[in-house]
Inverse folding.
């Protein structure tokens, strides 16, 4: 027993308007049976966060933003700060590969966003992962090392223990090809990430930090990923837009959490 709660996060990306987001949330509600060791989180677009925060019962589903800017306020046209999100969300996704690749987010920008998230008492879900080329060139460990160590470098060990790290190999994400990752392959990468935390912040911290997996996770594959030692949850994208699939994913997670009791 790790003592870490299972975390299932649905990343809705830039899909669904406010009305559609509200409908999807209501549908999820019909089926979710809360479990004390499973946290269910959804990440709708920015516009839906305010209305959904009024509809959501946080004991059943928590809200997550998909990004935010690292300055708390100022003349930054078009940006949304962590401080503006403070009472609306419990989590923020930071450094998703779509942000790194399409919007050129650097290691340092992501480090500053993680620090801003912690400063504003919002739990960061830090996404890390190598591209297909990097994996082919045997650079996976180096990439993960750089992404993890830079992103966490402004935090104390206690703060690191609260961060969630999502291992999302770019080649496995549906956006970038969606090659199915075998649990037997990625278990080494998850282990490596925890080792980085242990080396830098100590074993006690590494034991508390949750590491989840993302990359074409669906209702059929989630069980295999949750069975990986040290894998504390999943971050499905496309499958989270379909409430049947997302509910099934939650069901699998709940069943596994009950078996682990
Ligand atoms: P996917 O997305 O499940 O559609 O691959 C995961 C993600 O991008 O976080």
């Amino acid at each position: 027993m790790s003592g870490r709660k299972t975390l299932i996060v649905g990343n809705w990306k830039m899909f669904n308007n406010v009305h559609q987001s509200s409908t999807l949330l209501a549908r999820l509600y019909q089926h979710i049976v809360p479990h004390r060791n499973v946290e269910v989180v959804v990440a709708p677009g920015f516009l839906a966060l305010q209305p959904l925060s009024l509809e959501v019962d946080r004991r059943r589903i928590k809200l997550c933003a998909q990004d935010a800017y690292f300055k708390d306020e100022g003349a930054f046209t078009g940006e949304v700060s962590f401080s503006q999100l403070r009472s609306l969300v419990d989590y923020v996704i930071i450094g998703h590969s779509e942000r790194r690749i399409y919007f050129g987010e650097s290691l340092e920008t992501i480090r500053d966003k993680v620090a801003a998230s912690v400063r504003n008492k919002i739990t960061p879900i830090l996404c890390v992962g190598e591209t297909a080329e990097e994996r082919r060139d045997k650079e996976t460990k180096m990439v993960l090392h750089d992404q993890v160590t830079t992103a966490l470098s402004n935090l104390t060990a206690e703060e690191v223990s609260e961060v969630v790290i999502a291992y999302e190999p770019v080649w496995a994400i549906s956006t970038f090809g969606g090659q199915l990752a075998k649990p037997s392959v990625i278990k080494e990468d998850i282990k490596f990430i925890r080792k980085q935390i242990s080396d830098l912040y100590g074993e006690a911290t590494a034991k508390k930090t949750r590491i989840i997996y993302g990359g074409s996770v669906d209702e059929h594959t989630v069980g295999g990923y949750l069975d990986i030692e040290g894998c504390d949850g999943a971050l499905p994208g496309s499958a989270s837009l379909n409430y049947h699939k997302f509910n099934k994913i939650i069901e699998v997670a709940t069943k596994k959490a009950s078996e682990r009791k």
Observations:
- The pocket of 2-phosphoglycolic acid is lined by residues 11, 168, 173-174, 178, 214-217, 235-239 (CB under 6 Å).
